Amino acid sequence: MSIKKATMVLEGGATRGVFTSGVLDYLMEKDIYTSHVIGVSAGACNAVDYVSRQPGRTRDCMIPKDKELGYYYGIRDFVKEKSVMNMDLIFDRYPKEIYPFDFETYFKSEMECELVTTNCLNGKAEYMKEREDRDRLMKICRASSSMPLLTPIVNVDGVPYLDGGLADSVPIRRAEKIGNEKIIVVLTKNAGYRKKTVSKGLQKIYRRAYGSYPELVRTIFRRSFEYNKTMNYLDQLEKAGKIFVIRPQVRPVSRLERNVETLHAFYEHGYKLMERKMDALTEYLEK
Predict the structure, then answer these.
(1) Which among 9, 129, 202, 280 is placed 20 to 30 Å from 28, CA to CA?
(2) Residues 198-212: pLDDT tens digits?
(3) Do the Cβ atoms of 234 and 240 come closer than 8 Å?
(4) Of 250, 120, 233, whose CA–CA distance to 172 is shortest?
(5) What is the DSSP string of 114-178?
(6) What is the rounded distance in angstroms from the CA atom of residue 268 to the CA atom of residue 276?
(7) Distance between the two ends of the chain, CA-based, in angstroms?
(8) Are the C-beta atoms of residues 25 and 271 closer than 8 Å to each other?
């Protein structure tokens, strides 16, 4: 199938991203691709593998078959690296050695891919692209996926960035700005989910950790409000038939899930759900 003039929006959610992997793997197997993709956090990892046309790659990265290739740090390494995950392994060794990323296909693709990051200096979302530099592409993916408090800030072109989900968890407005009439949104949480406000105790921790970035802290504190407002808007668009949304219909895994069987089950749920909804998606894209 030729590339459809449509925008794919991929929410993050750390290991919840295996649901998205299942959805996209089914679409790739059916040779269904959209002209534009916007990925946030784990959605950024899914996005680049969608553009490079590598079904199964994000799944394998998120669910390593060999325990020695696991990306979670133990307590000792967490204290040393100030990260719960081995980000060097995920964004350097994985794409270059262990689960090779097809940079050539990615850079030659006609598809436009934007990866969402949060600029720590101004607290705003940035929609970043890279079409030539392999290391910079992986660094942007890393920045988009760097969860606050759990992973370090990432510098790209001398600017500090964190998880794109802080400033724009589900970039539907960005998708509308691109201008395609068709928008597909892949969420990683159930219908009706809304974020809770940051507790006072956690607010103190954020202020202490990111005192040098006051605009970032403000963005973090406003995240629940902005996220919930976006979800309300998505619900309106979905009811009006203006967008196509696919989201889990079972309880999502935790965002730092480690159980292999649990992760595989959530991946399979995404794959099978997309299979069941394929006729509805086709009807939406063609009407």
Answers:
(1) 129
(2) 999 999 999 999 999
(3) no
(4) 233
(5) EEEEEETTT--EEEE--SS-HHHHHHHHHHHT--TTTS--EEETTEEEEEGGGT-SS-HHHHHHH
(6) 12
(7) 17
(8) yes
